C-alpha cells in the first residue's frame, strides 16, 4: 500500500489545491434546468458594494451544506449564484470613492461618467466576490448566474411594474416620504434607523463623505405666537409652542391643540400671528392627535416637514389652503428656502439664527428639556431624515400581504425556526404603502413616460408601447421617461420567477424548493418577494423559508467597518498580518476618523494578525454556533483554530489508520471475531449519521455537524482508536485484520458525510483512503447509505455507562494527582450493567484492575459516584497514594467549612435585617434568603460529615499501615545479623593491621595507656609522611577507656580486638541508617567496613552526609561534609564538589543561611 499522507501535520495548501479538481466534478454534476423534480435554491445576492463578510460566509456555509446533503441523498441540485446592484448602497460607495480619489462630488461629473464608475466598481466586486465564493467551497451553478441590473432583469422588472400598475396596486401620489439630503433621494421606512436621544444633549452627525459635526438635541424651544386680537381674555396675549425644530417655523400654517385639553379649549377657532412673518395669520385648530403632555401641549402645524403634522393637516384640509400644504422651507439638500435672509443656510446652522431672531423680537420663551426625543437617521448615509411631501410611486401591499398571511396560516408557506415566523408576519401586517421611487442614477428606471411635467404618466414597458398607448397614430411625440429608479428590493423580489423564465415563460409551478437567508432581511426581501411573486403568478416562490441569525462579533456587537470588527472570510482562510489588514483598511472608502477607530480596534483584537486556518476551519467555526439564534456572537478566530485542530485530528486519524492497514497480515489464516468495541463503533457511526440526517432535514446544520464531530472526536479517536493501539504495538495480526476492516468502513463513511460541512479535508483524505478509486464524495453511493440494523441501543447504553466509569476513574486520578502509571483496584457497585464484557476496555483505557467483589471493611476504599447513574465505584487507596488523597480531602473539607461559615454569616445578617424591617415584603424576602442559606448550610454540614468520615477512615488505615511498617522495621533483617556476624568473624581472624593503619592504632594505644602524658606519644618519633588528626582515635578510645582503667591487667591483644570491633559496629550502625534511606527510595543495599584507616573514619561522615541528603537536609549535609573533609580526608572535596554543585545552582542549598 502506498503511503497516502506525506506530511505528519495538516497541510492546508495541499488540501485547497486538491479541492479544485473536486470542484470541477461538482460543476459537471449540476442538474438540468428543465427538470421539474430538481432541487432549486438561490444564493441571496450579495451587494456589489464590497467583498463578502462573515454573514455572507455563514449563508454560503449553510446553503452549501444543504445542497451537498441533498446530492448525497441522490437528488439533483441547482444552486443559483447572483449579485444585487444595490442602488443606494453602491451609489454611496462610488460617491465616497470619487471623493477619496479625485476630491469630486457626484454633481461635478456627468451622469454618463458616474454610471461608468458604478459599472467598473460592479465588475471588480463581482470578480472578487466570485473568487471568495469559490474559495469557500460553494458548489454553485455558475452557468446559471443572475444579476439584478442585467437586460433579463430590466425586461422583467418593467413587465412586473406594468402588471401591478394595471392591477391597481402601483400608483403615483403626493405623500409624506423619508428624504435623505445626502443622497437627495427618498428611502423606505425600513431604511430608517430610530435613535432615542435620552439624556444626551448633543448628537454626532456622521454623514458619509462629510466632516462630522455635533448638533444640539433633547431640547424644546418655546416660541410665542401672539393672538390676532390682543384683548384676549386669557390674561396673556400669546400662546407658547414647544418645538425641537425652530428652523421649520417658516413653513407653519396653523397651531393645533387637543380639544380635551382644558387649558386651550377656549382658543380653538382663534388666530395668531406668525412670530417672524407678522403679515401671516395662523388658525388655532383642534385635533386629538396632539399630545397634551408633550411640550406645552400646543403643536405648530408644519405639514411639509413632519409626518404627524401632514396627517393632521389632511384631517383639516377644509381649514387650510393648497398653499399651506405646499409651503416648504427646507430644500432637497437640507438648506433653508423661503426664509428671507436665511435662504441657502444649512438647516442645523440656521436653527441658532432663527432663535436669535425670535429673541430679538421678544418671541422666545426659553428652553425646556425633552429627553423623549427620537431622531430618524438614514441607515445608508448617517444623515438625519428630512420629511418631505413629494409625488412618488407607491405600491399598495395590503391585499398582497393578506394573501401571504393566509398561505402561512394554511401551512402552504412554512418558516424555520418557528419563532422567527412572527418576525415575517409583523412585516406582512404593515399597511403603509411601499415607496418605490428612488432619486438615483444607479438602478432600474421606472417604466413611466409623459409628455410634460403637467401631463399624466403613461406606464408601459418601453417608449414604443407608451407611444402606442398615448396616441397610436402620432409616433413623433417626444415622451420623457421618469428619471427616478426603482427601489432595489423591487428588482430582487422577482428573482425566483425570473430564474424560471418569467415573463417570457408562464409560471406553472413553485419556482424554488426552499429559500434560506438571514432573518435581518426577512422583511426587506422575503416578505416582499413572496407577496410580489404570489401576486404576479399565483404561485408562491417557495414553500419553505429557512432563516438564520445575524452574525455579531464575540462581544455581541453588530459588524461594522468603522468599528473594525468586520472580518473578511479570506483573512481566516489564507491568514493575514495586522499590517496587511491595516493596508486594506486604508484603501477603504471610510472617512479618516472611521479608519483610525477601525485601525485601533484591529490592532487591539489581532496584534499578531490572523493565522491561516483554511476554508474548512472557517466553515467549522461558523457552524459551531446556533445558526437559528436571533444574534450569533462569533469569536471566529478562536473557533477557527479549534476547527484547524479538528482537521489535524482527522489527518492524524488517517495516518494511524494507514499504519494499521500496512501492518496487518492479509494472508493470516487465523480468524478473529469482532470484539464488543467493534460492534459498538459501527453502531455509534450509524446512530450519529441518523442524528445528522434528522438535523439536516429539520434545517439545523450546526447540530448535524455537532453529531459527526462528537462521533469522530469522542467515540472514534478518544475511545475506539485507544483500544486498538495495543494490537498494533504487539503486532496482533488477526486482531489488526478486524481493526483494519472496521476503520476502513467507518472512516470512509464518516468522511463522505463530513464533506457536507468540511469538504476540502474530507475530499482530500477520502481520495487517498478509498478502496473504490471511482467513488466520489459528490455521488450518492448505496454502500454509504444508513444501515439502521447495525444500531445496537442496548450496547450503546452499556458502553455509555462504561465510558462514564472510565471518566470517573480519570477524574479521580486528576483530582488526587495519582499517576496513570499506578494501577488502581476498582470495584463497581449499584448498576445493572455487567462490566465483565467490558473489562478489557476499562483496563486498557484507564489502567485499573476491575473487581466485581464487594470491598472488604478492613481495606481502605474511597467511594465515588458515577455521574448520571445509580452506581458508584470504590477505589482501593494504597499507602503510596494515601497522602495525596488525604491532602485533597482536607482541602475540600476546608472549602466546605469556609462555605458553611459564609452562609451562617448570611443567616445572621438576614435575621437582624428581618427583625428591623417593618414592611411585610422585606420581611418575606429576608426569610426567603434565610431559608436558602439554611439549605446550603445543611448541605455543607452533610458534606463535612462525609469528608470527616473519609478522612478518619484514611487516618485509621494509615495508622494500621504505619504500625505494620514500624513492626517490620523493629525486626532485624537476616542480612543485618549476618553483617554483625561477619564483623566479629573478621576481627577474630584478622586482628592485626597493615602498615597504613599503624598511625591510628598507635594513637589509640597512646591515648589509652599514656593518656595525658604526651611526651611518651609515639607520634613524636614517627609522625608519618603527611599530617594526621587524632579525632578518630580519640572517639574510638573513649569507648574503651573505662575498660582499660578498670581492668588494668588486661592484655593489649584483647584491647586491639575491642578497638576494631567498636569501629566496625560504629560503621555498621551508620551504614544501617544509610541503607534504610536507600530502602525507602531505591531498594535494598548492604556492605561492611571496619578497618582503622582514615578512609574508614571518613566513610562514617560520607554515610551520615548521604542520610541528610536523602532527607533533603542539604545545609546540614554540607556542614557534616565540611567537618569530615577537614578532619580526615581532604581529597573528599573532589567527591563532595560533584555532589553539592547541583543543589547550589538550583538554590536548594543556600551558600549563606540556615537549614
UniProtKB/TrEMBL annotation:
Keywords: Aminoacyl-tRNA synthetase, ATP-binding, Coiled coil, Endoplasmic reticulum, Glycosyltransferase, Ligase, Membrane, Nucleotide-binding, Protein biosynthesis, Transferase, Transmembrane, Transmembrane helix. The keyword Protein biosynthesis applies. GO terms for molecular function: aminoacyl-tRNA deacylase activity; ATP binding; glycosyltransferase activity; valine-tRNA ligase activity. One of its GO terms (biological process) is valyl-tRNA aminoacylation. Residues 678-826 form the Methionyl/Valyl/Leucyl/Isoleucyl-tRNA synthetase anticodon-binding domain. Its EC number is 6.1.1.9. PROSITE patterns: AA_TRNA_LIGASE_I. It is a multi-pass membrane protein. It comes from the Eukaryota. It is found in: Endoplasmic reticulum membrane. One of its GO terms (cellular component) is endoplasmic reticulum membrane. Residues 893-943 form a coiled coil. PANTHER family: VALINE--TRNA LIGASE (PTHR11946:SF111), VALYL-TRNA SYNTHETASES (PTHR11946). This is valine--tRNA ligase.
Amino acid at each position: 500500500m502506498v503511503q497516502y499522507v506525506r506530511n505528519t501535520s495538516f497541510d492546508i495548501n495541499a488540501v485547497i489545491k486538491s479541492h479544485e479538481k473536486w470542484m470541477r466534478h461538482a460543476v459537471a454534476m449540476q442538474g438540468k434546468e428543465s427538470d421539474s423534480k430538481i432541487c432549486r435554491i438561490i444564493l441571496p445576492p450579495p451587494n456589489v458594494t464590497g467583498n463578502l463578510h462573515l454573514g455572507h460566509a455563514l449563508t454560503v456555509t449553510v446553503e452549501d451544506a444543504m445542497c451537498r446533503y441533498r446530492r448525497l441523498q441522490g437528488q439533483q441540485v441547482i444552486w443559483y449564484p447572483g449579485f444585487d446592484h444595490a442602488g443606494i448602497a453602491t451609489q454611496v460607495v462610488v460617491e465616497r470613492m470619487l471623493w477619496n480619489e479625485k476630491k469630486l462630488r457626484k454633481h461635478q461629473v456627468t451622469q454618463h461618467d458616474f454610471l461608468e464608475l458604478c459599472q467598473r466598481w460592479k465588475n471588480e466586486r463581482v470578480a472578487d466576490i466570485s473568487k471568495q465564493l469559490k474559495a469557500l467551497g460553494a458548489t454553485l451553478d455558475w452557468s446559471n448566474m443572475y444579476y439584478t441590473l442585467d437586460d433579463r432583469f430590466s425586461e422583467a422588472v418593467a413587465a412586473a411594474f406594468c402588471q401591478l400598475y394595471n392591477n391597481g396596486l402601483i400608483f403615483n401620489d403626493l405623500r409624506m416620504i423619508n428624504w435623505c439630503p445626502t443622497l437627495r433621494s427618498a428611502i423606505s421606512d425600513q431604511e430608517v434607523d430610530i435613535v432615542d436621544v435620552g439624556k444626551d444633549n448633543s448628537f454626532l452627525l456622521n454623514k458619509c463623505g462629510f466632516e462630522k459635526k455635533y448638533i444640539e438635541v433633547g431640547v424644546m424651544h418655546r416660541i410665542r405666537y401672539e393672538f390676532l386680537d390682543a384683548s384676549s381674555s386669557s390674561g396673556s396675549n400669546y400662546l407658547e409652542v414647544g418645538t425641537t425644530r425652530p428652523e421649520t417655523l417658516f413653513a407653519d400654517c396653523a397651531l393645533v391643540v387637543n380639544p380635551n385639553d382644558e387649558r386651550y379649549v377656549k382658543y380653538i377657532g382663534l388666530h395668531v400671528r406668525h412670530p417672524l412673518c407678522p403679515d401671516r395669520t395662523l388658525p388655532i385648530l383642534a385635533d386629538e392627535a396632539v399630545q397634551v403632555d408633550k411640550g406645552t401641549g400646543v403643536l405648530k402645524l408644519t405639514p411639509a416637514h413632519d409626518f404627524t403634522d401632514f396627517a393632521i393637516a389632511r384631517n383639516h384640509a377644509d381649514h387650510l389652503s393648497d398653499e399651506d400644504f405646499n409651503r416648504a422651507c427646507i430644500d432637497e439638500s437640507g438648506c433653508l428656502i423661503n426664509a428671507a435672509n436665511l435662504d441657502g443656510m444649512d438647516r442645523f446652522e440656521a436653527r441658532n439664527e432663527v432663535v436669535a431672531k425670535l429673541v430679538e423680537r421678544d418671541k422666545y420663551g426659553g428652553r425646556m428639556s425633552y429627553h423623549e426625543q427620537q431622531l430618524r437617521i438614514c441607515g445608508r448615509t448617517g444623515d438625519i431624515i428630512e420629511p418631505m411631501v413629494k409625488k412618488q410611486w407607491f405600491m399598495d401591499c395590503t391585499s398582497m400581504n393578506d394573501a401571504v398571511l393566509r398561505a402561512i396560516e394554511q401551512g402552504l408557506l412554512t418558516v424555520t425556526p418557528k419563532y422567527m415566523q412572527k418576525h415575517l408576519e409583523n412585516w406582512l401586517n404593515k399597511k403603509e404603502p411601499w415607496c418605490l421611487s428612488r432619486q438615483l442614477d444607479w438602478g432600474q428606471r421606472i417604466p413611466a413616460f409623459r409628455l410634460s411635467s403637467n401631463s399624466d404618466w403613461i406606464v408601459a414597458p418601453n417608449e414604443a408601447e407608451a407611444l402606442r398607448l398615448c396616441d397610436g397614430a402620432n409616433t413623433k411625440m417626444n415622451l420623457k421617461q421618469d428619471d427616478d429608479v426603482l427601489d432595489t428590493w423591487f428588482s430582487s423580489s422577482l428573482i425566483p420567477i425570473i430564474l424560471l423564465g418569467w415573463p417570457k415563460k408562464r409560471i406553472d409551478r413553485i419556482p424554488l424548493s426552499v429559500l434560506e437567508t438571514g432573518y435581518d432581511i426577512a422583511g426587506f426581501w422575503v416578505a416582499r418577494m413572496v407577496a410580489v411573486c404570489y401576486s404576479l403568478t399565483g404561485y408562491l416562490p417557495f414553500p419553505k423559508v429557512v432563516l438564520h441569525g445575524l452574525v455579531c462579533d464575540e462581544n455581541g456587537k453588530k459588524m461594522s467597518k468603522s468599528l473594525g470588527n468586520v472580518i473578511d472570510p479570506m483573512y481566516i482562510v489564507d491568514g493575514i498580518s495586522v499590517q496587511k489588514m491595516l493596508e486594506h483598511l486604508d484603501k477603504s472608502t471610510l472617512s479618516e476618523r472611521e479608519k483610525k477607530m477601525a485601525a485601533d480596534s484591529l490592532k487591539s483584537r489581532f496584534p499578531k494578525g490572523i493565522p491561516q486556518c483554511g476554508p474548512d476551519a472557517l466553515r467549522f467555526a461558523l457552524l459551531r454556533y446556533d445558526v437559528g439564534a436571533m444574534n450569533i456572537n462569533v469569536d471566529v478566530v478562536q473557533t477557527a483554530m479549534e476547527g484547524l485542530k479538528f482537521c489535524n485530528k482527522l489527518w492524524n486519524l488517517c495516518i494511524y489508520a494507514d499504519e494499521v492497514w500496512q501492518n496487518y497480515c492479509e494472508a493470516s489464516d487465523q480468524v478473529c471475531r469482532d470484539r464488543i468495541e467493534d460492534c459498538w463503533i459501527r453502531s455509534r457511526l450509524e446512530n450519529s449519521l441518523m442524528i445528522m440526517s434528522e438535523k439536516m432535514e429539520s434545517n439545523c446544520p450546526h447540530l448535524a455537524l455537532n453529531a459527526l464531530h462528537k462521533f469522530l472526536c469522542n467515540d472514534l479517536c478518544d475511545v475506539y482508536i485507544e483500544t486498538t493501539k495495543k494490537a498494533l504495538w504487539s503486532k496482533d495480526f488477526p486482531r489488526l485484520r478486524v481493526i483494519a476492516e472496521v476503520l476502513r468502513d467507518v472512516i470512509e463513511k464518516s468522511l463522505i458525510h463530513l464533506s457536507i460541512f468540511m469538504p476540502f479535508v474530507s475530499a482530500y483524505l477520502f481520495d487517498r483512503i478509498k478502496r473504490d478509486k471511482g467513488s466520489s464524495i459528490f455521488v450518492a453511493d448505496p454502500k454509504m447509505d444508513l444501515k439502521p440494523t447495525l444500531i445496537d441501543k442496548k450496547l450503546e447504553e452499556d458502553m455509555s455507562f462504561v465510558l462514564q466509569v472510565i471518566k470517573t476513574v480519570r477524574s479521580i486520578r486528576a483530582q488526587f494527582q495519582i499517576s496513570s502509571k499506578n494501577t488502581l483496584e476498582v470495584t463497581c457497585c449499584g448498576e445493572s450493567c455487567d462490566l465483565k464484557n467490558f473489562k478489557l476496555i476499562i483496563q486498557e483505557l484507564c489502567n485499573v484492575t476491575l473487581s466485581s467483589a464487594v470491598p472488604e471493611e478492613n481495606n481502605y476504599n474511597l467511594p465515588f459516584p458515577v455521574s448520571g447513574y445509580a452506581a458508584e465505584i470504590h477505589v482501593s487507596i494504597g499507602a503510596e497514594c494515601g497522602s495525596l488523597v488525604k491532602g485533597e480531602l482536607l482541602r475540600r473539607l476546608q472549602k466546605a467549612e469556609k462555605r458553611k461559615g459564609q452562609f451562617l454569616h448570611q443567616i445572621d445578617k438576614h435575621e437582624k435585617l428581618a427583625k428591623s424591617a417593618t414592611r411585610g415584603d422585606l420581611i418575606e424576602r429576608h426569610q426567603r434568603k434565610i431559608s436558602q442559606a439554611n439549605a446550603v448550610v445543611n448541605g455543607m454540614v452533610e458534606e463535612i460529615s462525609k469528608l470527616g468520615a473519609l478522612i478518619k477512615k484514611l487516618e485509621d488505615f494509615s495508622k494500621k499501615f504505619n504500625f505494620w511498617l514500624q513492626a517490620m522495621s523493629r525486626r532485624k533483617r537476616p542480612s543485618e545479623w549476618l553483617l554483625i556476624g561477619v564483623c566479629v568473624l573478621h576481627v577474630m581472624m584478622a586482628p592485626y593491621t597493615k602498615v597504613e593503619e599503624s598511625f591510628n592504632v598507635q594513637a589509640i594505644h597512646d591515648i589509652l595507656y599514656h593518656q595525658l602524658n604526651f611526651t611518651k606519644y609515639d607520634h613524636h618519633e614517627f609522625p608519618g609522611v603527611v599530617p594526621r588528626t587524632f579525632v578518630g582515635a580519640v572517639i574510638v578510645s573513649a569507648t574503651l577507656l573505662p575498660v582499660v582503667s578498670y581492668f588494668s591487667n588486661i592484655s593489649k591483644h584483647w584491647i586491639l580486638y575491642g578497638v576494631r570491633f567498636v569501629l566496625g559496629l560504629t560503621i555498621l550502625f551508620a551504614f544501617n541508617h544509610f541503607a534504610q534511606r536507600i530502602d525507602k527510595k531505591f531498594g535494598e543495599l548492604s556492605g561492611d567496613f571496619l578497618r582503622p584507616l582514615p578512609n574508614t573514619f571518613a566513610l562514617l561522615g560520607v554515610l551520615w552526609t548521604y542520610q541528610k541528603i536523602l532527607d533533603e537536609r542539604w545545609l546540614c549535609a554540607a556542614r557534616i561534609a565540611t567537618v569530615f573533609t577537614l578532619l580526615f580526608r581532604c581529597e573528599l572535596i573532589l567527591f563532595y564538589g560533584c555532589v553539592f554543585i547541583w543543589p547550589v545552582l538550583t538554590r536548594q542549598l543556600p551558600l549563606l543561611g540556615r537549614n
